[in-house]
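Page header: ASSEMBLY MODEL / two components / 227 residues total.
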Amino acid sequence: DIQMTQSPSSLSASVGDRVTITCRASQAIRTWLAWYQQKPGKAPKVLISIASTLAGGVPSRFSGSGSGTDFTLTISSLQPEDFATYYCLQSDSFPLTFGQGTRLDI
Amino acid sequence: QVQLVESGGGVVQPGRSLRLSCVASGFTFIHSGMHWVRQAPGKGLEWVAVISYDGTQAKYVDSVKGRFTISRDNSKNTVHLQMDSLRPEDTAVYYCAKDKSDYYHYGMDVWGQGTTVTVSS
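Prediction written out in full:
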């Protein structure tokens, strides 16, 4: 199975900060990586697919990059509604696997 | 609008069965692969199963192989997850999610609100 390791596991930041979350795959996954945001008690919401394609309706302050084994999610200027938990997902091979999550709070 | 609505969750004893359903609307169901993803209390997301657009292909995480079966009825825009021989470690919120592709490669782009399954004696 492909292991997805996110870092950091948690992060404290302030409104206006630039934040970067990384996801490392245990083997190459080309660009089959997505990023999700989840708020407490809610379903996840897709932010980025195929490593760098912004999902519809997602603000442009979110961006994704990477290929192979190393990927990043960047939020250019944190807004109050961005405080949540973020997950990466590899969809290169079965079983699909998520990272353990990065909790972003104030 | 694009919507997925799950049902069928509940409290069940270990070893018993439960069938989850997910009704889709607002998109062309027959074009999309469909997933089930679960989240145990206070834990992260775990992919459970996926089925292709036409129902001919399905894959599972190892921990549910032989116990869970994913199926779909394209005439009713519905995907099911039949869960047999349930274990306490299957306790979770189960989400139905649509793939951007006809099977699995693009990942989930729309999620339901989730249905809670509790396995306890």
